[in-house]
Amino acid sequence: MFTLLKLPYAYDALEPYFDKQTMELHHSKHHATYVTKLNEALANAPELYTKSIEELLVNLNVVPENIRTVVTNHGGGHYNHLFFWSIIQPPIGNGGEPEGELASAVDRDFGDVTKFRDDFTKAAVSIFGSGWAWLVANRDNKLSIITTANQDSPITQGLKPLLTIDVWEHAYYLKYQNKRADYIDAWWKIVNWQEVSRKFAKK
Q1: Cα 101 to Cα 17, 84, 119, 133, 136, distances in angstroms
Q2: pLDDT in tens, 15-41
Q3: Within the chain, which residue ranges are assigned CATH 3.55.40.20?
Q4: In which residue ranges of the chain is CATH 1.10.287.990 found?
Q5: The Cα angle at residue 38 between residues 34 and 41, in degrees rounded to 5
Q6: Going by C-beta distance under 8 Å and a sequence separation of 6 or more, which residues neighbour residue 29?
Q7: pLDDT per residue over 148-197, tens digit each?
Q8: How many CA atoms lie less than 13 Å away from 10 in the CB half-sphere?
Q9: What Rg, from alpha-carbon coordinates, does the chain have?
Q10: Number of neighbouring beta carbons within 10 Å of residue 142
Q11: Of 179, 181, 188, 187, nearest to 122 (Cα)?
Q12: CATH code, 20-86
């Protein structure tokens, strides 16, 4: 069965950008619910417990049709949150920038890191309703910015996710209310560029 993993940092470690109360609710309630609902759905097809969350989402055709939507939504919620937690970290300086091969790819595909940040921020701000903004790489390691609705994931499109921001209201409403742009600006301060760059370099 899938489990809710402990975060690699304390709930208050992302202060002042992400507050402790939001982090605790986001992880121990919202993310936990996705895990619970995913396990409940898979109880109807227990052989699927042997697969990783990535394998389930990439091969949704192996999931029985009567639970496929639930697995897409709650499995996607589990995967997306695992990924989100992995690319943020306690604040170091002003958040840093892409490193190594990723820095070169950002310059190649967006012009420079400032243009990339502007384009990514615009994509995240413009999402209607709930969803995610992503930096992804295709099979040729060309970078692009995409958005997904609800708990859809880029891996179902054959893309390699590198960076993401959760713009569901539960991710920011306690601290930032309806000011999504302020939340996104704060998020840039805690991006773990070393981890994002590692994901890009991984074959």
Answers
A1: 28, 21, 20, 22, 14
A2: 999 999 999 999 999 999 999 999 999
A3: 100-201
A4: 20-86
A5: 140
A6: none
A7: 999 999 999 999 999 999 999 999 999 999 999 999 999 999 999 999 99
A8: 4
A9: 17
A10: 11
A11: 181
A12: 1.10.287.990
Cα angle, residue 155 at apex, residues 154 and 160 outer, rounded to 5°: 85
57 within 8 A of 155, measured Cβ to Cβ: yes
- For 177, which DSSP code? T
Q: Which architecture, in CATH terms, is 100-201?
A: 3-Layer(bab) Sandwich (3.55)
Q: What pLDDT is attached to residue 193?
A: 96
Residue type, 119: D
CA distance 69 to 41: 10
What is the maximum span of the chain, computed from C-alpha positions, in angstroms?
49
pTM of the full predicted structure? Answer: 0.96
Query: Rounded to the nearest 5 degrees, what angle is found at the Cα of 94, between the Cα atoms of 133 and 122?
Result: 25
User: Amino acid letter at 70?
Assistant: V
- At 65-119, the pLDDT tens digits run 999 999 999 999 999 999 999 999 999 876 789 989 999 999 999 999 999 999 9
**CA dist 158 → 2, 10, 57, 59, 141 (Å):** 23, 33, 10, 11, 12
Q: Is the pLDDT of residue 203 over 90?
A: no
